[in-house]
Amino acid sequence: MTVQQEKNPIPVPQVEPRAPIPKQNLRIPGPTVVPDEILAEMARPMINHRGPEFAAILRRVTARLQYFFQTRSPVLTYPASGTGGQESAIVNLFSPGDHVVAITIGSFGNRFARIAETYGLQVSRIEFPWGEGADPDVVESRLKTLPPYRGVLVTHNETSTGVTNDIQTLASLIRRHNPDALIAVDAVSSLGCIPLEMDLWDLDVVFTGSQKGWMSPPGVMMIAASERAWQANKSAKLPRFYFDWASSRKKLEAGQHPTTPAVSVFYALDRALELMLEEGREAIFERHRRAGEYVRRRAREMGLELFANPRYASNTVTAVRLPEGFNAKAFMKALREQDGVVLGGGQEHLEGKIFRVGHLGYFREEDLAEAMDKVEQRLRSFGFTGH
Ligand code: PLP
């Protein structure tokens, strides 16, 4: 026995036993429901990540991701969450002291800006009230007042408020004003669900992942960079190692992942992309469009007010205002424990004021119908009659 063990032994921890995971109608904006056949993929045996089987998976996954991103640039994959995508964009594009513009409309846009500040960038924020999208006219006039900037950070779909920005319009006005600006787009809760054409819309960096909308397990982040962004990467001085695009690209071209990848996650992603192709890119967009309309209509019919400006309403997540003084916590607890429906709550100052319904990735219409029926019944049992 070592001296330390004698002095301060660490006892076997007394913990709760593992419990079965309940079957739920999981309607949070990520992690989203994963179909059984993808879950089953993750139970396959491990393989050598430097061997031919993994190389084949990586080739398939990369080509199909290029299709869903609509880009000819290589799509790099990292076991990471969405925040990793934000950090990866910052450290690969910029140098200390660079001036960037952050267009923020909610919590995740603010996070993107904070990461840039953490790395010593000068950040000018063009901020909009939560629930609003970025108004292109306001953005344009603000850009004209700012000193020269190297890049623009923007969220495609703001998950905290259920708002989708008009990236195409924003990108074209940014280009007009500053043709060399590096436009980095957080598409964590939208790519594959809401149209976004990376090359066509002339975007420089687009990333997604983190089990928000993809029929994939949590923990894989995918990121693509334009030719302009790859050029910028050569002179970008911020420190980076895990997320270093240049070394990842070199490895990818050799059919390998830069580090030891989460092999099971790649099995799942491989199958998910196959299923997405079977459904079809346009058909998936259409399914999300219908879902957005359906959930918004049901909420309005219940007499509830939608949080997002309808002009920018998201087709992957709907934020719904709760009546003044409503016990949001008890309402969501009853839904979860008694009805098996799990909703997302409000973040930061919206806690207790809104609930969010996720309708992204894999879902069936009846899942949404069941969730909204239960919400309606629960609201009634809590004394809310609408109108
Ligand atoms: N960006 C957006 C738009 C998101 O919705 C999220 C998470 O919900 C993130 C970034 C951060 O992702 P994560 O929490 O998985 O790191």
Note down, in words, how this protein is organized.
This protein has 387 residues and is of the alpha/beta class. Helices cover 41% and strands 16% of the residues. The protein contains 13 helices and 14 strands. The protein has helices at residues 3-7, 36-41, 52-69, 82-93, 107-118, 136-145, 167-177, 227-235, 245-253, 263-279, 281-301, 328-339, 365-381; strands spanning 25-27, 75-79, 99-104, 122-127, 151-155, 157-158, 163-164, 182-186, 205-209, 220-225, 305-306, 317-321, 341-345, 354-358. It has a 7-stranded mixed β-sheet, with helices on both faces. Strands 1-13-14-12-11 form a 5-stranded mixed β-sheet. A two-stranded antiparallel sheet has the order 6-7. Strand 13 and strand 14 (354-358) form a beta hairpin. Helix 4 (82-93) packs across helix 5 (107-118), helix 11 (281-301) packs parallel to helix 13 and helix 12 (328-339) packs across helix 13 (365-381). The mean pLDDT is 95. Residues 30, 81-83, 108, 155, 159, 186, 188-189, 210, 212 line the site of pyridoxal-5'-phosphate.
Q: Descriptors for this entry?
A:
387 residues; alpha/beta; 13 helices; 14 strands; 16% strand
Question: What is the gist of this entry?
Answer:
The chain is of the alpha/beta class and 387 residues long. The chain has helices at residues 3-7, 36-41, 52-69, 82-93, 107-118, 136-145, 167-177, 227-235, 245-253, 263-279, 281-301, 328-339, 365-381, and strands at 25-27, 75-79, 99-104, 122-127, 151-155, 157-158, 163-164, 182-186, 205-209, 220-225, 305-306, 317-321, 341-345, 354-358. It is globular and about 60 Å long.
